[in-house]
Write a structure and sequence with these properties.
Strand content of chain B: 5-15%
Largest sheet of chain B: 4 strands, mixed
Distance between the termini of chain B: 58 Å
CATH architecture of chain A: Up-down Bundle
Largest sheet of chain A: none
CATH topology of chain A: Formate dehydrogenase/DMSO reductase fold
Helix content of chain B: 25-40%
CATH topology of the largest domain in chain B: Alpha-Beta Plaits
Radius of gyration of chain A: 22 Å
Number of domains of chain B: 2
Structural class of chain B: alpha+beta
Structural class of chain A: mainly alpha
Number of helices of chain B: 10
Oligomer: heterodimer
Order of helices and strands of chain A: HHHHHHHHHHHHHHHH
CATH class of chain A: Mainly Alpha
Number of strands of chain B: 12
Radius of gyration of chain B: 21 Å
CATH architecture of the largest domain in chain B: 2-Layer Sandwich
Shape of chain B: globular
C-alpha cells in the first residue's frame, strides 16, 4: 500500500457514516462558516470588532489558547503508562490521546493567529525566513515547541495508522524514541506557555512561580476529562476495545490532579489575601469585584464550585465508578478549567491595568463566533482522524483488506486488531 | 492565511526588484520566495502588495534599500497628505543618550502635552490614541496607581486636593517590551530610544502585556488622521502614520530630537515641568537635575531602569 492508497482509503473512511455523523459534520461546518464570516470582518475592520483595548490587550482568544495547550499536553497522561510500562488497557487507546493533542494544537495555533493584528506577517515568526527573537522571547519558544509538538504527534499518528492499515507492526526504533520525546515535549509546551505569563514582572497576577505547576495540574484534569467521555462514546458506538479498567485508571489519576489543582489554587489565594499587598486587587477583581465592577465574579465562583464538586465526585470510588456521576464530574472539571483559563487567567491580569485603570472586558459576538469556529475546526480534525483510526484499531479495516471491500463484511475481534497494530 | 488590504505603502511601484538587486538573490530571499510561491499567494498580487508582503526587517536593510524605502514612503504620504512631506531615517548621534525629567511640583494637569504629542506624532484621531496619560493622584495617598484617575475633568486644574503624574514611555535601559517581542520588531537605539519597526510588527501585543507603564498602544481599528492635521516632518521609526494592527509608542519625538530639537511635550508645557537632554553631557540640563535634585523612577522594583525621571523641584 502506497501513500496514495493510504490517502484514498482514509478519505473513504471519512466519507462513510450514518445520519448522526453527517448532522454532526453539518453542524460543525455551519459554525465554521459563521465564524469565518466574523473573522473576515475582523481582518477587514481590525481587532476593534473585539472588546479588547489597550487596557485589556489580551483576552478571550489568548485564554482559549492557554486552555487548549493544557488539553494538548494532557495526552501525556495516557502516553506515559501506555508506552513506557506496556500497561495493557490504556495502550490501545493512547493513539486517541495523540489525536486529541493534534486537534488541540491546531486550535491553539488558530487562536494565536486570530489574535494577531497582522496575520499577513505571520511568516516573520519563521526561523531563518523571518526574524525570530530567539532565545530572548518566550513567545518565540512557544511557537517552536507548539509546532514541534504538533509535528511529533502527526508523525507518530500517521505512522501508526499507515502501518496499521498495511497490517504491519509499527517501527519500534522510530515510534519509541518519538513517544519518549513527546513526554517532555508535552510538559514543555505547557511550561513554556506558563512562563510566557509568569516571566512578566509588570503583571503581578501572573508573576508567580506557582503558575507553571498550576498549569500542569489543571491540564491533567481537563485533558483526561475529554478522553474519559470520548472513550465511553466509542465504547457504545464502535467496536473499539476500550476496557472499563482503562477509564477507571484515568479517573483515578484525575482525582489526584484535581486535588493538586485545588491545593495550588488555595495556596495562591492564601498568599494573596493574607499578605494583602497592592497585588491583591487582581484576585479581588476576579473573586469579589472591585470599585463596583463585578464582571468576572460569577465566572470565578463557577470555576471554584465546579472544581470542588468534580473533585468530590472523583474522590469517592463509588461516584467515580458510577457512569452518571463520572460523566457529570468530567463535565464539571472541564467547565471549571475552561472558565478558569479562559476568563480567570488572562483578564484579571489586565484589570486593573498597569496604571490602575479598570476596563471591564466581556467578549463580543465576533469573538464568540470566531472562538466557536475554531473549536468546530478542532472537533472536525478530531472527528476525521478518529474516523480513520477507529476502523484500524477495531480490526474492521484488516477485515476489509482481506476481502477488498472496505467497510463491509465481517468484523475481526479486537484481539486481532491489537496484534495487527502492535 | 488571509491577506489584509495593502497598507500605506501601496504607492511603491518599483519595490520588489529595487530592494532585492543590491546583493543578488540570497538564501533568505530564496527561501522566502520559495515558500510564498508554494503557497500560491504571490501570483495574483499587484507589485505593491508583493513589496509590502516581502518587505524586510528595517535593521536588515542596506543603506540603498533604506533609501528606496524612504522614497516609497514619501511617495505614498505625498499622495495621501500632500507634497510637502519630509521623511528621515536619521540614525542616533554619537555620544548621546537621551534622558527626561518631570517636575511633579510644577505639573498642573492641563494635558497640553497630551494633545501636543498627538499633533506632533500623527496619532490616530479616530479611534483616539494618546501616548501620554496624565494621572490625577490624591495628595494624601502619594503615588498610588490604584486610586489614580486618568479621566479627571474638573472646572479648573490644578485641583487643590490632587497632584498630577503624566506617564508615557519610560524609555527603560532594560526594557521588557523589546525582550519579549517574538520577531524583534522593537529595540533600543544607541541613543536609548526604544523604537518599533511598524513594517515588521505582527501585532501580537506581547510587548503591551510586558510593559509595566501602559506605554504601548495598539491600532485596534483603521487609524484616521485628517489631512489638515498631518505633521509632514517624519521619521521612519517615529511619527510616520501607522497602519491598522500594529503597536506604537512614544519615541521622545525621535524626528525632532535627532534634529537637535526638544520633544513636543517639553516645548508645549506651560509651567516648564518637563526637562530633556543628553545624559552623557555633564553640562546638559538633565545632567544638572540628576546632580542637584533628588529624583526617582516609577516602579523601580521592576529593575526596568527608566531614563524618565520624576522629581519635586520645589
Amino acid at each position: 500500500m502506497g501513500p496514495l492508497q493510504f490517502a484514498t482509503t482514509s478519505a473513504r473512511f471519512v466519507l462513510r457514516g450514518g445520519k448522526a455523523y453527517w448532522i454532526w459534520i453539518a453542524l460543525l461546518m455551519a459554525l465554521i462558516v459563521w465564524g469565518v464570516l466574523a473573522y473576515i470582518e475582523q481582518v477587514q475592520v481590525g481587532l476593534i470588532v473585539t472588546n479588547m483595548r489597550d487596557q485589556v490587550s489580551w483576552a478571550f482568544y489568548i485564554g482559549n489558547f492557554t486552555f487548549l495547550v493544557g488539553v494538548a499536553a494532557a495526552a501525556v497522561v495516557l502516553v506515559i503508562p501506555a508506552y513506557i510500562y506496556h500497561w495493557g488497557p490504556i495502550k490501545e487507546v493512547a493513539i486517541l490521546g495523540e489525536i486529541l493533542a493534534i486537534s488541540a494544537i491546531v486550535m491553539c495555533i488558530l487562536f494565536v493567529m486570530v489574535d494577531i493584528g497582522r496575520p499577513d506577517r505571520g511568516w516573520h515568526l519563521i526561523p531563518f525566513v523571518g526574524h525570530m527573537n530567539f532565545p530572548s522571547s518566550v513567545l518565540a519558544w512557544d511557537v517552536l515547541v507548539l509546532n514541534l509538538y504538533l509535528v511529533l504527534n502527526l508523525v507518530i499518528v500517521t505512522h501508526l495508522l499507515y502501518r496499521g492499515m498495511q497490517g504491519r507492526p509499527y517501527n519500534q526504533s522510530l515510534v519509541v524514541p518519538l513517544v519518549l520525546f513527546s513526554i517532555p515535549a508535552a510538559v514543555g509546551i505547557h511550561t513554556v506557555t506558563a512562563f510566557l505569563y509568569a516571566g512578566l514582572p509588570g503583571r503581578p497576577y501572573w508573576n508567580a512561580s506557582i503558575l507553571a505547576p498550576r498549569f500542569l495540574c489543571s491540564a491533567f484534569c481537563s485533558g483526561p476529562a475529554v478522553m474519559v467521555v470520548l472513550f465511553q462514546i466509542l465504547q457504545r458506538t464502535t467496536n473499539i476495545a476500550i476496557k472499563d479498567a482503562a477509564i477507571r485508571k484515568i479517573a483515578e489519576l484525575m482525582a489526584y490532579a484535581m486535588f493538586l489543582n485545588l491545593f495550588l489554587l488555595g495556596a495562591e489565594i492564601f498568599k494573596e489575601y493574607y499578605s494583602a499587598t497592592e497585588h491583591l486587587i487582581h484576585v479581588q477583581y476576579l473573586f469579589t469585584g472591585v470599585h463596583g465592577h463585578h464582571a468576572l465574579v460569577p465566572y470565578a465562583w463557577a470555576f471554584v464550585g465546579c472544581g470542588i464538586t468534580a473533585f468530590l465526585l472523583f474522590l469517592f470510588p463509588a461516584t467515580r465508578r458510577n457512569v452518571v456521576t463520572l460523566n457529570l464530574g468530567c463535565l464539571l472539571i472541564y467547565a471549571s478549567v475552561y472558565i478558569e483559563k479562559g476568563m480567570g487567567l488572562i483578564i484579571p491580569a489586565f484589570t486593573p491595568d498597569t496604571l490602575g485603570e479598570i476596563y471591564v472586558y466581556t467578549p463580543t459576538l465576533h469573538e464568540l463566533r470566531i472562538g466557536a469556529a475554531i473549536f468546530s475546526i478542532g472537533f472536525l480534525v478530531f472527528t476525521v482522524l478518529c474516523k480513520i483510526a477507529i476502523p484500524i484499531l477495531t480490526g474492521e479495516f484488516a477485515a476489509a483488506r482481506t476481502t477488498a471491500v472496505p467497510g463491509k463484511t465481517q468484523q475481526w475481534p479486537a484481539e486481532a486488531a491489537r496484534a495487527a497494530t502492535h | 492565511m488571509p491577506r489584509t488590504p495593502v497598507e500605506e505603502t501601496c504607492g511603491a511601484a518599483a519595490g520588489l526588484e529595487a530592494e532585492h538587486t543590491p546583493e543578488g538573490l540570497s538564501r533568505r530571499d530564496f527561501l522566502t520566495t520559495l515558500g510564498l510561491a508554494a503557497a500560491g499567494i504571490l501570483a495574483g498580487c499587484s507589485p505593491e502588495a508583493r513589496e509590502a508582503f516581502l518587505r524586510k526587517h528595517f535593521r536588515e536593510l542596506s543603506p540603498a534599500e533604506v533609501e528606496t524605502r524612504l522614497a516609497n514612503l514619501h511617495a505614498d504620504y505625498a499622495k495621501r497628505f500632500g507634497e510637502d512631506v519630509s521623511i528621515s531615517a536619521a540614525p542616533a548621534r554619537e555620544g548621546v543618550v537621551y534622558g527626561y525629567a518631570l517636575d511633579l511640583s510644577r505639573c498642573i494637569g492641563c494635558r497640553r502635552c497630551v494633545y501636543a504629542c498627538v499633533k506632533e506624532n500623527n496619532q490616530s484621531r479616530d479611534p483616539q490614541i494618546q501616548w501620554i496619560r496624565v494621572l490625577e493622584m490624591e495628595k494624601t495617598k502619594g503615588i498610588d496607581f490604584e486610586t489614580a484617575n486618568p479621566y479627571y475633568n474638573p472646572e479648573r486644574v490644578p485641583d487643590p486636593d490632587h497632584f498630577y503624574v503624566p506617564v508615557a514611555c519610560q524609555q527603560c535601559r532594560t526594557p521588557q517590551c523589546t525582550e519579549v517581542c517574538p520577531v524583534g520588531a522593537t529595540w533600543q537605539e544607541p541613543d536609548g530610544i526604544v523604537v518599533i519597526d511598524y513594517d515588521w510588527c505582527i501585532g501580537c501585543r506581547y510587548c503591551m502585556a510586558a510593559c509595566p507603564y501602559g506605554a504601548r498602544h495598539f491600532n485596534w481599528g483603521e487609524p484616521h488622521l485628517p489631512q489638515a492635521e498631518f505633521n509632514p516632518n517624519l521619521h521612519v521609526l517615529g511619527n510616520r502614520p501607522r497602519s491598522r494592527g500594529v503597536v506604537e509608542k512614544c519615541t521622545f519625538c525621535i524626528q525632532r530630537v535627532r534634529a537637535g530639537r526638544y520633544p513636543a511635550c517639553v516645548e508645549i508645557c506651560p509651567v516648564g515641568a518637563r526637562k530633556f537632554g543628553n545624559l552623557i553631557d555633564p553640562e546638559s540640563e538633565i545632567s544638572r537635575i540628576l546632580r542637584e535634585k533628588r529624583v526617582f523612577v516609577l516602579k523601580s522594583e521592576l529593575k526596568t531602569e527608566p531614563k524618565f525621571y520624576y522629581f519635586y523641584g520645589i
